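TEACHING EXERCISE
Course module: macromolecular assemblies
Task: Read the component lines below, then compare them to the predicted structure of the full complex.
Student: A.B.
Group: 4
Components provided:
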Amino acid sequence: MASVSFREVKKEFGKTRVLHGISLDIADGEFMVLVGPSGCGKSTLLRMLAGLEDISAGTIAIDGRVVNDVESKDRDIAMVFQSYALYPHMTVRDNMGFSLRLRDDKKDLIEKRVAQAAKILNLEPYLERYPRELSGGQRQRVAMGRAIVRDPKVFLFDEPLSNLDAKLRVAMRAEIKALHQRLKTTTVYVTHDQVEAMTMADRIAVMNEGRTEQLGAPLELYDRPANLFVAQFIGSPAMNVFDGVYRNGAVEALGARWPCNKKAHEGQSVKYGIRPEHLRLEAGGIPAQIEVVEPMGAETELVVKVGDARLTVLAHGRSSAGPGDRISLVPEAQNAHVFDAATGSRI
Amino acid sequence: MNKHKILKEAKLWLVAIPVLLWTLLPIYHIFLFSISSKDSAFSGALWPDKPMLHNFVVVFRQDHFYLHHFWAQIWNSLWIAVAVGVLTLVIATCAAFAISRLKVRGGRTVMNAALFTYFIPAAFLAVPMYKAMGSYGLLNSRWSLVLAMVTLASPYAIWVLKQASDKLPWELDEAARIDGATPLQLFRLVYLPLMTPSLVAIGTYALLLAWNEYLYAFLLLSHENTIPLAVGLGHFLASDDSPWELLMATALIYATPPAAIYYAFRRYMVGGLTSGAVKA
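Instructor-supplied answer key:
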């Protein structure tokens, strides 16, 4: 187990700079998720930590030791790839024991470690099979098994669930989380899926265009997004955001006054953000017209039109309303977010 | 089957039958000669009156002036072919691994150079090769032919193996690196096993190329005891009264190993030689 720290880490591919100085400290035993849209540099950052990419500037340290010039194999890390990257010509047993074999560990020790990992991951019946004879979920588990037999200082996951179907993804998400709770190994997990990030992380680093936009616990990001990017990236369904002008303690937008308890300059151009579950369907509020009703059982998602903007409203329980119905929305002022229109940062 | 399908099938047969006959007729001819007596060989019959295996007995017993070195020559052929196959494989595999997986500097140049050698016909290189082997003092040594054939086979072998290894997922190398593999371990434990089909194909290609070679063998080797059987067969035609039935029997024996090898590895040959032909 170990801490990981990035100090002003930069990466250039030729003249293109993909990381603009990332600084990030990951505590011992922490589950850190790097999340962001594709091309934001999250995988590159992970690969630099793994030693698969050179570091253009800055330092990366594992357990206090700078590893910039240390080879992958000497960094004591294990990585799970999106494509699993299992050795096709080796059985599950050999795949899992490969790193130990390279380390010249004793046969019975390898046997023991593989057996342990197989037990944790329910892979015991498949040890003699080849990767091609396994399902996607089983392959994923073998890839994880290969990582845990080494008992590394840090686990690295690079979009490990992207190749699985939706149901399996949810199951594996829970398995990875359970595994982390059991082993308590420092983990860096890269994903583009904010739901994965929210559900698994101790802390999330939201990345965009080679920079960290915000770093914090999942609910902290959800409740207090530092800027528009994080606000719109985190949360499903996404936050409603529209332009307005701050006047008299509220935001004037879409022909109505939207309450908030933030202070901005009088007449300042702002963006008003409100999450779908913070718009209540109550009388005496802002008039809206329902366009689409999406019943999901426990809750109902409504797409409504206010002025010429489309907003999403999440109502608990079921709704008898239908398309075309006129309703009234009451925004929860304490849960409204206001962002500077020019910079996008939180007010 | 509907009418359209029958018509299409018939057209295919119309092409296939002549091609098949065209290919098999000479082989049948060889076979016919090899089981005929000297007198009946040129009779023009489709099947000899008294088919016999006597010719093969003569060949195996080296019981004829042209056949005195039969076993030595077939051994030369085998020795040279296997050496060319193995050496080409070693060179091409290492080159492909270095260029494709280790991404060494200048890899592209090597690939382009390899392709460029195909603009020059092998026959053009025969005289320079002869000169070169002469200055190395290798003339009349089996090694001269081995080295020449490896030179001719390697560029193509490198090209095909490089294309094939480009198709191996890059993550495997990365996974192996993280697992702690050195480049040599990566080569031995991951790369070689996964490349086996292509390696078999290329090894067979080089082996058969050397086995079938005549021109270079004829030029570089001249002693009865060092020439491969291909050149030995050519000697049959030195006199006006060639023992055709023995020549054909020997030819049939000479043609058997390549056919057997090709048959045994046909699965790899088709897959291996076309791999890298198109971008998958």
